[in-house]
Design a protein that fits this description.
Elements (H helix, E strand, L loop, with lengths): L1 E10 L8 E6 L7 H11 L4 E5 L6 E6 L4 E2 L3 H13 L7 E6 L2 E8 L6 E6 L3 E5 L2 H8 L6 E9 L3 E7 L2 H6 L4 H10 L8 E5 L9 E6 L7 E2 L3 H13 L7 E6 L7 E8 L7 E6 L1 E11 L1
Parallel strand pairs: 2-3, 4-6, 11-12, 13-15
Antiparallel strand pairs: 1-2, 1-18, 3-4, 4-5, 6-7, 7-8, 8-17, 9-10, 10-11, 12-13, 13-14, 15-16, 16-17
């Protein structure tokens, strides 16, 4: 029987049952795709990571949803680094993670006691703009509820960034499967994810944005914190002058009872963004051993 060490980490929070959970499986690059996806389904989490040695960085990380491998994900990156710290596998305050989307630089800030993981997401790719009516149909809202023009943006994983006018609109959004399927079929070449719905008002007094990501089966119905989409969102908001400060607090998950928060910094001027730094803490909730035949 093959055994693998694993940790369940709540990311973008310093408390149990907050933020977004991710199971991190160590020395597991030998596992096949079907086993990795079966493990994600077993946990009922949105994503899990499988970590091992890298010839290009300090560690190689593979990211899996319940039904597919994806090139990069934000909260699992935070969770992975917190797990590596927990297992005393990191000896430096800076490391490089090898992912399918490229090398992700990581800084670890321990000046406040609890380690804060800072990932620098890649230079954003601004893809096609999407008719607001098409995106509104996916969320069951009106095109008039959307500010500006939705656009597919990626800092490692493509999302359609969609800014809505208020918390009331954000709360009313319900995922409509047929319009979503048509949208994703049209964007199949770039494997676009579900729309990332954003408001320009935090869930708390210190937040600057508040967001939701509703997901289709076999994934959980809603993601409680989406670090990769947060990076893409930050690039979009800065490019189109929807935020005044490139440094801001992003919030997500509060209406699910899993509040999460990230410190965000956009790197570079509005028309020449070089990357996005997304930082957060994590809490190791459980540690154990995965037994496979």
């Amino acid at each position: 029987m093959t055994q693998y060490d694993c940790d369940w980490v709540d990311a973008f929070t310093d408390q149990a049952f907050g933020g977004n959970g991710c199971a991190v499986v160590h020395d597991a690059l030998d596992l096949d795709d079907d086993t990795c996806m079966a493990f994600v389904r077993e946990t009922s989490l949105t994503e899990c990571t499988f970590v091992g040695p890298s010839a290009r960085g300090d560690f190689k990380v593979r990211y899996f949803l319940a039904g597919t491998e994806i090139p990069f994900a934000g909260h699992p990156t935070i969770a992975t680094v917190i797990s590596l710290i927990h297992r005393e596998k990191i000896k430096s305050r800076t490391i490089m993670l090898e992912t399918l989307s490229g090398i992700v630089p990581i800084e670890i800030d321990e000046s406040f006691g609890t380690p804060r993981v800072i990932m620098t997401q890649s230079k954003p790719s601004f893809g096609p703009k999407v008719d607001a009516a098409n995106i509104a149909a996916i969320g069951g809202i009106s095109a008039d509820d959307i500010l500006g023009t939705p656009q597919i943006v990626s800092t490692g994983l493509p999302f359609c960034i969609t800014v809505v006018k208020s918390h009331d609109v954000l709360r009313s959004i319900q995922l409509q499967p047929k319009p979503l399927a048509a949208f994703q079929k049209a964007g199949a070449a770039i494997r676009v994810m579900e729309p990332f719905w954003v408001t320009l008002q935090g869930a708390t007094e210190i937040g600057d944005t508040f967001s939701r990501l509703l997901m289709a089966p076999p994934n959980p119905s809603e993601d409680s914190f989406t670090g990769s989409a947060t990076g893409a969102m930050a690039a979009y908001l800065w490019r189109y002058a929807l935020i005044e400060d490139r440094n801001f607090i992003a919030e997500q998950g509060h209406w699910m009872g899993r509040p999460g928060q990230a410190q965000v910094q956009v790197l570079g001027p509005q028309m020449d963004i070089q990357g996005v730094r997304v930082a957060g803490t994590g809490h190791v909730l459980m540690s154990g051993t995965l037994f496979l035949d």
